[in-house]
Amino acid sequence: MARIAIVGGTGYTGVELLRLLAAHEAAEVVAITSRAEAGRRVDDLYPNLRGFYDLAFTEPDDKLLAECDVVFFATPHNVAMQSVPGLLAAGARVIDLSADYRVRDAQLWSRWYGEPHTSADLLQQAVYGLPEANRERIRDAQLVACPGCYPTSILLGLKPLLANDLVDSQHLIASAASGASGAGRQAKIDNLLTEVDGSFKAYGVGGHRHLPEIEQELALFAGHPVQLTFVPHLLPMVRGIHATLFATLTDAHRDLQALYEETYADEPFVDVLPAGMFPQTRTVRGANRCQISLQVPQGRDTVVVMSTIDNLVKGASGQAIQNMNIMLGLPETMGLDQVALLP
Amino acid sequence: MARIAIVGGTGYTGVELLRLLAAHEAAEVVAITSRAEAGRRVDDLYPNLRGFYDLAFTEPDDKLLAECDVVFFATPHNVAMQSVPGLLAAGARVIDLSADYRVRDAQLWSRWYGEPHTSADLLQQAVYGLPEANRERIRDAQLVACPGCYPTSILLGLKPLLANDLVDSQHLIASAASGASGAGRQAKIDNLLTEVDGSFKAYGVGGHRHLPEIEQELALFAGHPVQLTFVPHLLPMVRGIHATLFATLTDAHRDLQALYEETYADEPFVDVLPAGMFPQTRTVRGANRCQISLQVPQGRDTVVVMSTIDNLVKGASGQAIQNMNIMLGLPETMGLDQVALLP
Amino acid sequence: MARIAIVGGTGYTGVELLRLLAAHEAAEVVAITSRAEAGRRVDDLYPNLRGFYDLAFTEPDDKLLAECDVVFFATPHNVAMQSVPGLLAAGARVIDLSADYRVRDAQLWSRWYGEPHTSADLLQQAVYGLPEANRERIRDAQLVACPGCYPTSILLGLKPLLANDLVDSQHLIASAASGASGAGRQAKIDNLLTEVDGSFKAYGVGGHRHLPEIEQELALFAGHPVQLTFVPHLLPMVRGIHATLFATLTDAHRDLQALYEETYADEPFVDVLPAGMFPQTRTVRGANRCQISLQVPQGRDTVVVMSTIDNLVKGASGQAIQNMNIMLGLPETMGLDQVALLP
Amino acid sequence: MARIAIVGGTGYTGVELLRLLAAHEAAEVVAITSRAEAGRRVDDLYPNLRGFYDLAFTEPDDKLLAECDVVFFATPHNVAMQSVPGLLAAGARVIDLSADYRVRDAQLWSRWYGEPHTSADLLQQAVYGLPEANRERIRDAQLVACPGCYPTSILLGLKPLLANDLVDSQHLIASAASGASGAGRQAKIDNLLTEVDGSFKAYGVGGHRHLPEIEQELALFAGHPVQLTFVPHLLPMVRGIHATLFATLTDAHRDLQALYEETYADEPFVDVLPAGMFPQTRTVRGANRCQISLQVPQGRDTVVVMSTIDNLVKGASGQAIQNMNIMLGLPETMGLDQVALLP
């Protein structure tokens, strides 16, 4: 059994790691840290875990973390980059679910996150943990930067178009919507049920922090810089991301349905839907899966791609475990075969 | 007091007309028809109306309808066009909330609605009831075709750009989302709470019936045909439409915020938000109001316009009453000064 | 026009007072205070108010408050009791929406609210602002303690039974449920959409702060002390309270439907539904109304009463305005004739 | 591998059986029937099942069903009783999730379900499938009547009190609330999102069809007839039942917390929460688990028990599989170890 530690486990990606790892045959959570909740049993905070874990939150302890096979950081940004250099030096392997190591350009990172990057030398070494793009490099990585939730849905949705040079890469559009769990478990008025329920809005229209990592990875698909207009929206619900992607086709003759099916034929967690079936967030709820479909309305020159994930699973904790499986040489799907909860 | 009749009053636009007209000083509902519920009191079906109406649904009776000052059709498509020719001949004035008279080209209508138009000769006479575009023609109209909910939000959002020739009109994009009341009060599995709640999806991506009326009216703004890619989505909530509109700027130097504020300065029901404030559907819930804001992310050449209405008010029944006020020479805002219900 | 001030206007009862008073013909809000938001326009915080108020939050200023005709306190408990003594001395009339003056026994208040009552001498003078029980005393009151949301629904539901000595008053049961807006607009993790949506739970089962005021007022109906088991629940929605009340009948022969209809025949805001129709929170959403129905299942000796209000209207701000109307000698229904928003 | 058939698999209990059985090591679904959807792939109707089943709905075929090891009926009432006699005669073992065999008295059944019972002779043979009450009899049963969702939560909540004669059994009260999936996947206006969302109501107050089976089983716990006032409510959410149970204590000295913990100490799917922790429906969402807590407010003589299940799991399909495990001699928990999905 691989020994697993989770740093910052009180948030939703933390409890989701615990839910998924409870069913994992080859990994065992031996430590979960939280300064705020140290000493409290995890099943007192999260009663859905009663009977599955006999574990309490502890103060962070780098020495103990370094003895684990894999350390997950389920922390806000700016936390992992304080501890990761030491852990790597001590030989640990780290999967960071936060934004700290996703952007390779430290200056760009600083501009979007509003503070200096204290561990910039590791940015080139970190592997962007999207297995469908970087599987081989993840295998041997010591530090994996797990993608954000919006990026995962958008990158998987646009990859076939950009990798095959089929669209105008300077006018890509992503109109995406997220359930409120994407904002984490933080005491903010904006995220109260009374503020979010029964309503819908765009936010961060001037610039969302996920934009730089999305454009960075899209550029790798395209082989050159791209421009994306990214508008996130907040949904009155808990889980799920739905990205509606628009691009102007430069090649009208390609069979896009076939292209998408071929691209993802061997991917266990990307499901290209049959033509005419559109994804819903609920059909991936709780599952480590991205469902994608596409359409060219009225046979014009704009292609619409719809891409759906559960932001806490394929958009965070499930993807982190997928990365862990690859890093540990385990079957990539181990512990990730949950059927989505519907209705 | 103007005498008002409502045909097909059991749906959500019907009860919303009743809610709004209960507060109208110069109009009185004297008849409301429904074949299915004839004989039943309206406040038995809709207990929120108890104490406000002493009225029961009746069988449709064209003679009685013709004696009213204004007849609202709150019916599914294909109903109004059966009765309207006779009512107009009898001198009635009609406001049709359905789709029957919105598209001026009968063949185009038939292609999208799947049946012949039985009253095509009235299509040229009907006025598209968007006061912000056609106020003068509405004043004397005998037949007003009240716009659909998606069209209202999209048309008001794009008008300033097209009327001033500022964007590529052949690649307009509308990523719009609607609350479930847009689908009406019909017994369909797809609209059950268990199917819609906690989930989000696109639908009608290959072509939604609101597309032809939107492109028709956008073309009038632009002075030439336009092409719009329109993707509607279903929100897990009751009321509200949010349209996120994208267009490529052909003129980068125009002050768009000022343009929008000037365009709508005298419009009582269009509220251009200050720069940096984005609309939410809840801030217009229950109110006859469209709130709009815009942004040019990263100073590139794509403009994003966000436009929000309550689909049952400015997107249907409120707009119908706004049209009625204009037709009757009443103050346009009469009975339409509700503050949105928040939270 | 009566000059109105609102103290602590940033919460949901504050914005609801503003929404309702915007339509009031004889009252004008001249001041609204908030330490946290002083200087900010109210329509910047609450964009649904754009166009209705040209008003900004100000620092509290007792001198200015004392010049108003009525001062509403829309504050958490323990705030009003600091300022009210001074305001009363200066001649102001106060309607307190908080809990500070609802319980006549200062020691009892202190036990439930965990701090000493600093204005205990006013407790006997304060009138409990449930017009359906205390209309005459409210008329001349200088200080009205507006009831809580649970109490309003429960008191109106049980009054006819207790006032007519028809049930075992020592084993009353209230199983009540509230929308999340009852918890106010505070940054607490427990009230996040992600914590509340899609779930249901009881809370405060060991003792909720509304219990003492409910038992106090029920005892006045009964003429002797009563015992109530009160279990509140949190609903995954914004507005509405539904109380399901159970009592053992001691008199099986009384026509309870008739009794309820007679009791509330002249009450403009209490609507006893016809036998067999049950209330829903949505049929009173946004309206100052309590809808009640009752049933004796299987003809046994347990009566079930269902009582529904909008917690922010008849359970708070609407009731406060109803009290204001009575105090100012205005028609009791002035500004309170909104039709509930349905769907 | 046990060969499993599901009759009437298009509803929510059907898809839930498929979700749970996908993870079951010793059972395989070989047939799923539906007249309406015969020929359609199950993963076309339920895209969450893509990749898990290569199966289409078929017309019912009693011969094929009889060859299976276990046949689940996930049908509306009045369907199973047409086919079950033949299947039993052919040697099949049946688990009926509908109401057809839950009430032992055929006349009582007919009174509540409004039609004659066509298979009354099997009522005595059928075992009420609540393993926590009837485990031994289930083991060898040929026909198991799986309890309804409300009954499961109420029976488990009240069993310790009645079995130990601690309360007034003639004045039991159950104020229970269910998510909308309890009403099934049927095209009814009452269950539209627009009718249910953002609202709460009681229903069936005069008498709900689950009452006779609840009183029947409670009487078995008590050893004599009981009287229960049962008021169900509809929650604006998809999954979950929460029963709030009230009873008057006749013995004030018993340690009820200890009693409950002892009663359920060996039950794998009943979790008595620590004193002071109250259950939430979300902490059992998707899990085959009942969480229970209790309280005696203000130390008076009324005990409040809260009991929560997922109506589609422990209230239907999960419980059915638990019964199947017992009948097949498998570990009772096999395939039922899902962690609840939270948030």
From TrEMBL, chains A, B, C, D:
UniProt keyword terms in alphabetical order: Amino-acid biosynthesis, Arginine biosynthesis, Cytoplasm, NADP, Oxidoreductase
- Role, per record: Catalyzes the NADPH-dependent reduction of N-acetyl-5-glutamyl phosphate to yield N-acetyl-L-glutamate 5-semialdehyde.
* An annotated GO BP: L-arginine biosynthetic process
Q: What does the similarity note say? A: Belongs to the NAGSA dehydrogenase family. Type 1 subfamily.
Kindly give the NCBIfam families that the UniProt entry links to this protein: argC
Q: Which GO terms describe its molecular function?
A: N-acetyl-gamma-glutamyl-phosphate reductase activity; NAD binding; NADP+ binding
Q: Where is the Semialdehyde dehydrogenase NAD-binding domain?
A: 3-141
Task: Kindly provide the name given to this protein in its UniProt entry.
Answer: N-acetyl-gamma-glutamyl-phosphate reductase
